Amino acid sequence: MNTPQSPSSNKGPLSGVRILDMATVIAGPFAATLCADLGADVTKLELPASNDPLRTFAPMKDHHSLYWKVTNRGKKGITLDVRKPEGKEIFLKMLPSFDVLVENFRTGTLDQWGLDIKTLHQANPQLIVLRLTGFGQTGPYARRPGFARIFEAMSGFTNLTGMADGPPQHMNYPLGDVVSGLFGAFSIAAALVESSRSKNMIGREIDLSATEAMMRLLDPLAVEFDQLNYIRGRTGSRATYTAPSNIYKTSDGFWISVVGSSEPIFKRFCSAMGMSELANNPKFSNNQSRLNNLDEIDQIISNWCSSQTFENLEMVLNKHEVPFTKVYDINDVLNDPHFKERKAIIQLPDEDLGSISAPCIVPRFSGVSEHIPHSGSKTGAHNISFYSDLGLSDEEISKLRANKVI
Fold first, then answer.
1. Cα separation of 336 and 358, whole Å?
2. Residue 177 annotated in active site
3. CA atoms within 13 A on the CB side of 132
């Protein structure tokens, strides 16, 4: 019989911080996982029925969700039905042991369960509560359900994605979730710094809107409209704020991304193409002039790239120090010598599959040794040890399990 995995020692900068993650799917859990990567002791709380939708997301292997395993890495796993009176009582008893609570239920849900912020702070006055929702705790959309594609579309991001003459497009990845998760981890770290300076302050309630997180990434869009009445739209892979910057195809079928937008780089790029005279042409001599003649400069570069094999292009662009890359798929990432040397992809120990590949901990802190987190644990894997540490007897734990409280 496999024994539950326990998080290995991690002496990162958040070491000593205890986080209770009762969020579901991706955004909230990702915020907590980023904190776990940096040393926080994170406990993942699920309902006993194990109905986190992420456990059903494709792809699956041998009935195991690979997505769930990597998104919830480095956490202990417990179950508790906080909607039941016994579960609520245990939950409030748990809270003094934690510094942070992460939740992403629809606005008002915890209040309906009798776990409003006042009740939470009565149990632990210093508790930091991250509430990560689609639209925030206030406003006419506060109670709306939301998923990554909704956040992306409403923020204006999706309107930028796709070909100019085609429909808006979503990528095959929930960017809105992980972006809001990043903001969530940053918010937790900020609140922890503040609380460390003011020992007796009431814990912060953090109202994080995933849609606003996506909007925050799109810095210039509002001012462009405000000052110029300009609405940025879709242009395929071409940038319209700096040039040249686009994706081009080589003669042997490789796609490459090239950026030559600063004047020194553009001059080197022209030399690499054997067209040094372009840098002195008034139509291309500075960024604004190149933007004014974007179709023409893009066509020149496209024609040159399509005449080159990737091997030849790689050699000449590297020689002239022009920023470029082949457009990687994950196989390219795994086999890149730079990423291999830095161990950018690590192997997480997993009790079902032996080990699984996942991105390394980011960033790297001086004086902190390499840490490999375990994969996301099975539902309730640490129930016995956790509730025993909380002071419950074996008989009480068995009764809670029989009553489906845990």
1. 15
2. yes
3. 36
Distance (Å, whole) CA 155 – CA 149? 10
Q: Sign of dihedral through CA atoms 62, 65, 67, 71?
A: negative
CA distance linking residue 206 with residue 130, whole number of Å: 5
* Rounded CA separation 232/156 (Å): 9
Q: Which of 116, 177, 329, 352 is catalytic?
A: 177
Q: What pLDDT does residue 9 have?
A: 66
Look up tokens 């002039």; give the residue.
289
Question: What is the pairing mode between strands 128-133 and 100-103?
Answer: parallel
Comparing CA positions, the residue from 69, 94, 91 lying closest to residue 82 is 91
Question: Between vectors from CA 217 to CA 215 and to CA 218, what angle results, nearest 5°?
Answer: 70
10-residue averages of pLDDT along the chain (406 residues):
47 96 97 98 94 92 94 97 97 98 96 97 98 97 95 97 97 97 98 91 97 97 97 96 97 97 95 96 96 97 98 98 97 98 97 96 94 94 96 96 96
| Amino acid letter, residue 299 | Q
Place of tokens 């979730």: 177
Domains along the sequence of the chain with CATH: 18-217+366-402 (3.40.50.10540), 245-326 (3.30.1540.10)
Neighbours of 277 (CB within 10 A): 9
Per-residue pLDDT, 10: 78
